[in-house]
Amino acid sequence: MPHQIKWLGHAACMIKTQSGKVVLIDPWITGNPACPVKKEELNQADLILVTHDHFDHMGSDIPDLVKATGATIIAQPELCGALQKAGVGSENVINGMGMNIGGTVEAAGLKVIMTQAFHSGTAGEAVGYIIILEDGKTVYHAGDTGIFASMELLGKIYPIDLALLPIGSVFVMDPVQAAFSLTLLKPRVVVPIHYGTFPILVQDGAGFAELAGEKAPEVQVEVLKPGEEIEL
Ligand SMILES: [Zn+2]
């Protein structure tokens, strides 16, 4: 069975692995105008990865999602502390205290590496994640970030099958930077995210797809609608 990766709108993504493990990344569900599901419909999750504590990533649903699913939170210690104040128990936090950039943790049979990102945050800093699935397939969720040169290193150390990259501009990479980042990351497939949610952001994935085709024609571009998924 293939892995399924569903875009839930904005930066929210759900990975259902071939063995049925579910990973939620930045599950901003309630209040996310692009999200096609309700919090109550997300009743299975093994891991919840949070890139930073801005409302459009951490949202307000995580304590309820943890209660409903028993999921383990993966995030920086400062962000885990904020979630613990909001009612998440330390038994639902990776290592009881979180992790940090450069580290790898094993949980739910998967490997999760926290990567740098260039953005801001209140509780801790902004990060991204590399998730290595049961069969070695590798997914990179960049979080919110501008382009950075060591994307090339990430792609070398962890050959990336699927990159989930923000393209919406203003707060994150724009389509030009995101397309160029493909020459550094060298993923097999890319799905653009973090656009179209607000009027201020880039509104669709067409411009990115065109630029990506010019800059990195070997990369397969999959422009999804919120709620759509791809198989890996
Ligand atoms: Zn954001």
Biggest beta sheet attributes: 7 strands, mixed
The CATH topology is: Metallo-beta-lactamase, Chain A
- Strand segment tally: 13
Cα gyration radius (Å): 16 Å
- Number of distinct helices: 6
Separation of termini? Answer: 9 Å
The total tally of domains equals: 1
What coarse outline follows from CA principal-axis ratios?
A: globular
Report low-confidence residues grouped into runs of 5 or more: none
Provide the list of bound ligands, each named once. Answer: zinc ion
Strand order in the largest sheet? 6-7-8-9-10-11-12
Could you tell me the strand content as a percent range? 15-25%
Instruction: Give the CATH architecture.
Output: 4-Layer Sandwich
CATH homologous group name: Ribonuclease Z/Hydroxyacylglutathione hydrolase-like
Percent of residues in helices comes to 10-25%
**Which sequence of SSEs, written as H and E, runs from N to C?**
EEEEHHEHEEEEHEHEHEE
- Mean pLDDT comes to 97
Q: Would you spell out the secondary-structure blueprint of this structure?
A:
Layout: E1 4-7, E2 13-16, E3 22-25, E4 47-49, H1 55-58, H2 62-69, E5 72-74, H3 77-85, E6 104-107, E7 110-116, E8 127-132, E9 138-141, H4 151-157, E10 162-166, H5 175-185, E11 189-193, H6 206-215, E12 220-221, E13 229-231
Parallel strand pairs: 3-4, 4-5, 9-10, 10-11, 11-12
Antiparallel strand pairs: 1-2, 1-13, 2-3, 6-7, 7-8, 8-9
Helix pairs in contact: 4-5, 5-6
The structure holds zinc ion.
Zinc ion is lined by residues 11, 54, 56-57, 144, 171, 194.
Protein name: UPF0173 metal-dependent hydrolase SAMN05660649_01079
Family: Belongs to the UPF0173 family.
Domain Metallo-beta-lactamase: 9-194
